[in-house]
């Protein structure tokens, strides 16, 4: 019986002490945030702060540059080196080349820059730029 009551009492004491430990938001910070949300010009700062390229557009850029079939796509956080290049979010694609090799392609989600391409058969799968095509 004690084994059941003791954890319940400890949980109740913890829950009762939580509101006392909560920190109040400074009034100037709360007012500044509410003004930014209510002001249309200030709202642009919030809505335009980070706007990634749609995933289907990024996938189209990959298939324009490399021959093959996309078999996977996901969003991932940038590596430290990619963050140093200015990437905040990375699209990671996996492409199966006509030579049956897999390429891992990492692209900046904001502007579509190719950050890293790894895998065998890159040169064979690389398509010529549109200006060089006959």
Q: How does this structure look, described?
A:
- With 134 residues, the protein is α+β, with helices and mostly antiparallel strands.
- It has a domain of 71 residues: Nuclear Transport Factor 2, Chain: A (Roll), CATH 3.10.450.
- The protein is built from 6 helices and 4 strands, in the order ααααβαβββα.
- It has a 4-stranded antiparallel sheet, covered by helices on one side.
- It is elongated and about 75 Å long.
- The mean pLDDT is 79.
Order of helices and strands: HHHHEHEEEH
Could you give the distance between the termini? 84 Å
Helix content: 40-55%
Shape from CA axes? elongated
Q: What is Rg?
A: 25 Å
The largest sheet has its strands arranged as: 1-2-3-4
In CATH, the architecture of one domain is Roll
CATH topology of one domain: Nuclear Transport Factor 2, Chain: A
**Helix segment tally:** 6
State the low-pLDDT regions, or none. Answer: none
**Structural class assignment:** alpha+beta
Mean pLDDT: 79
Number of strands: 4
